[in-house]
Amino acid sequence: MKGNISPFVPSIAVALLCLGFQLSGARFAYMAGSGVWEHLLYGFCHANVFHLALNLMALFQFKPRVKTCIIGYAASVAASFVPFASLPVPTLGLSGFVMACYARRYHAFRLKPWRIVLANVVLAFVPFYNWRIHLLSFFIAYIIYMLYGIIQD
User: Fold this and answer.
1) How far apart are CA 73 and CA 79, in angstroms?
2) Alpha carbons 95 and 47: distance in angstroms, whole number
3) 30: Cα separation from own chain's centroid
């Protein structure tokens, strides 16, 4: 199966969408009181190329499938509507989506989410870093996978 690109297709699609937003200069960032479009599109916009590169490296490392991407997107958007996730500064970037995709791996391999929580507690001390959207996206997706597993059984 060398040379098989199919596992990367969802990641490539998300990366192209993010690159399109980056090149266009569009900045859909959400904060308290933002409109619906900001909540729907914040994940595809990034502060700079370095921010985009870090998120894309994490995304390509994980290689999420289409269903994982859909659940990850839904979880990250849902998390953005929770008032706890809003900071006084705008939030943008793909990291909430990536964290929601990691929830699939944590659920599938029955890993304990304490590592995710610990990493984000440490990141809570970084200024202007929205660790809340990471945790909320992760746990919303984790709950979706738990419910999905119950429905499948």
Assistant:
1) 10
2) 12
3) 14
133 in Cβ contact with 81 (< 8 Å): no
SS (H, E, C) the chain: CCCCCHHHHHHHHHHHHHHHHHHHCCCCCECCCCCHHHHHHHHHCCCCHHHHHHHHHHHHHHCCCHHHHHHHHHHHHHHHCCHHHCCCCCECCCHHHHHHHHHHHHHHCCCCCHHHHHHHHHHCCCCCCCHHHHHHHHHHHHHHHHHHHHHHC
Q: What is the pLDDT of residues 68-101, one digit of tens each?
A: 999 999 999 999 999 999 888 899 999 999 999 9
For residues 22 and 41, give the distance between their C-alpha atoms in angstroms, rounded to a whole number.
Answer: 12
